[in-house]
């Protein structure tokens, strides 16, 4: 482009094409198009929103959760493998990261296997009366069925699967289509997420207003880990409880345990209420020191089942 703008907006990276402007630009484009939908009405909304999706086969439509509001989501560490620029690689500067289906690497790369899981987070603004936090951006990531994290694990440093960003809709929800994560040594099965106040903040990890983790119910974990895809996870699960986990152990994951429906054959749907209080100072987010911490290598190369337990990943 010669005018260095797109739809009247300056490009974030003037020397790069529109498709390579990064997550913040993608999010602003999506936000602008959603505003257009409000004017054209419901008739053509579905088709237009699908057209502006970042190549995802799932539009991220929200599902109403029956979870009860229980206050602010606890602050937790982002762990050694955030991929948000706080500990090495930064996926939030990659185009295409705004997507609901996170099972493949960006650009149609490697797709991971596992029991299907659809995760809906209902995000509310406590300081604003616990109303839907419409317009906030949520970045979610987790390990594979083998307990590996893309961008960090040995041999998968260039992969970006199981990482994605969604914008909170008018009902207060974001939805990710993914797989059930494996269980590696030393941690209860979980999914990481960060909440940012708006679409312009997403590429700066210091602007996250909430960093937390979702815990998965034991009954579903037992069922999933009986499948051959999750070799090693059943043994690791048997050696830990929610109460002994170094993240969820404070209260047994009371406010972070997702409600689940489904089965280990056709897949599960997980829901969690995420109350965010913009009136309090975030107390988490940085990767911990020690194994897998800033400047240190991931434990056992990836933290996969059978390896040394990561430091609060």
From TrEMBL:
Protein name as annotated: Intradiol ring-cleavage dioxygenase
> Residue ranges of region Disordered?
57-94, 278-313
Gene3D superfamilies for the chain:
Aromatic compound dioxygenase
Any one GO molecular function term:
dioxygenase activity
Residues in domain Intradiol ring-cleavage dioxygenases? 88-186
Composition bias, Low complexity = 57-69
Which UniProt keywords are given for this protein, alphabetically ordered? Answer: Dioxygenase, Oxidoreductase
The record lists the organism as Gordonia liuliyuniae
């Amino acid at each position: 482009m010669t005018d260095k703008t797109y739809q009247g907006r300056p490009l974030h990276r003037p020397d790069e094409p529109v498709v390579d402007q990064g997550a913040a630009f993608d999010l602003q484009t999506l936000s602008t198009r959603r505003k257009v939908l409000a004017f054209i009405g419901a008739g053509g909304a579905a088709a237009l929103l699908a057209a502006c999706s970042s190549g995802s086969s799932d539009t991220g439509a929200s599902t109403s959760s029956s979870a009860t509001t229980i206050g602010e989501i606890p602050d937790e560490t982002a762990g050694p493998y955030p991929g948000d620029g706080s500990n090495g690689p930064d996926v939030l500067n990659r185009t295409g990261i705004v997507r609901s289906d996170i099972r493949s690497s960006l650009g149609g790369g490697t797709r991971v296997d596992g029991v299907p899981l659809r995760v809906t987070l209902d995000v509310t603004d406590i300081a604003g009366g616990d109303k839907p936090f419409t317009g906030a951006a949520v970045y979610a990531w987790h390990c594979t069925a083998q307990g590996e994290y893309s961008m960090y694990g040995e041999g998968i440093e260039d992969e970006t699967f199981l990482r994605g960003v969604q914008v909170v809709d008018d009902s207060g929800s974001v939805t990710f289509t993914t797989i059930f994560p494996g269980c590696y040594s030393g941690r209860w099965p979980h999914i990481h997420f960060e909440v940012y106040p708006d679409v312009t903040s997403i590429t700066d990890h210091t602007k996250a207003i909430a960093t937390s983790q979702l815990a998965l119910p034991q009954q579903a974990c037992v069922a999933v880990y009986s499948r051959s895809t999750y070799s090693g996870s059943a043994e690791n699960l048997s050696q830990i409880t929610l109460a002994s986990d170094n993240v969820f152990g404070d209260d047994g994951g009371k406010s972070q345990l997702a409600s689940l429906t489904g089965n280990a054959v056709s897949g599960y749907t997980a829901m969690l209420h995420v109350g965010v209080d913009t009136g309090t100072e975030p107390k988490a987010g940085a990767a911990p020191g020690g194994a897998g911490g800033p400047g240190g290598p991931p434990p056992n190369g990836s933290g996969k089942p059978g390896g040394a337990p990561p430091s609060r990943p």
